[in-house]
Design brief:
The protein has seven helices and no strands. The chain is extended and about 70 Å long. 67% of the residues lie in helices and 0% in strands. It has helices at 2-20, 27-47, 51-76, 91-111, 125-134, 138-159, 164-168. The longest helix is centred in the middle third of the chain and has 26 residues, at 51-76.
Length: 186
């Protein structure tokens, strides 16, 4: 009973946060709403006893949204949480494309002759799924991950006009001469 309640609550959270992406008026809020929607999906997958996939969904989506937020702040040159903007562009074409895509995918799901199972399922399906998802790609993921982190750090460093030594002096004790006040009140 408890699992059923949590599952349906996560369903509502998924749909509401997915809709909020198109309703909120800033990219940062849309990013957080999308992250919450994906985390709710990950919790649902966990409730279906697919632990590996559920954890991967949650970790990937949280990291993806965090990277998106970092790049947003880095390249937009403003605080996207404070800048109102529409997340919807060309409503009529987007709605038409979404409906057409839904019809095509639904028709494909209903009309395609799905293959029948061959052979017996493996004993540990979670391990088999993990190896199928990551087995041949582990080396690539191991190499790409540090490159992505280095890119983020380098991008933030390059985008920052002044570092803390520029602001507070060599001993970090000078009063900052910031063009705009803000931050944590120093």
């Amino acid at each position: 009973m408890f699992v059923d309640v949590v599952f349906w609550v996560m369903t509502v959270v998924t749909v509401v946060m997915g809709a909020a992406v198109f309703v909120v008026d800033s990219m940062a809020r849309a990013t957080y709403a999308l992250a919450l929607s994906f985390v709710a999906v990950g919790v649902q997958v966990l409730l279906l006893h697919q632990d590996y996939v559920g954890v991967i969904v949650i970790l990937m989506m949280v990291m993806e949204m965090a990277i998106m937020a970092v790049y947003m702040v880095m390249f937009m040159g403003m605080n996207p949480a404070l800048m109102p903007m529409s997340m919807v562009h060309d409503n009529r074409k987007a709605l038409g494309a979404a409906i057409a895509l839904f019809v095509v995918l639904a028709a494909g799901a209903l009309l395609i002759p799905w293959p029948t199972r061959r052979g017996a399922p493996l004993g540990d399906t979670t391990r088999a799924l993990g190896e199928a998802l990551m087995g041949s790609k582990m080396l690539v993921m191991t190499v790409v991950s540090p490159v992505m982190v280095a890119t983020i750090v380098a991008g933030i460093t390059i985008a920052s006009k002044r570092g803390r030594y520029d602001r507070f002096g060599a001993d970090l004790r000078d009063a900052p001469d910031d063009p705009q006040r803000g931050g944590v009140g120093r």
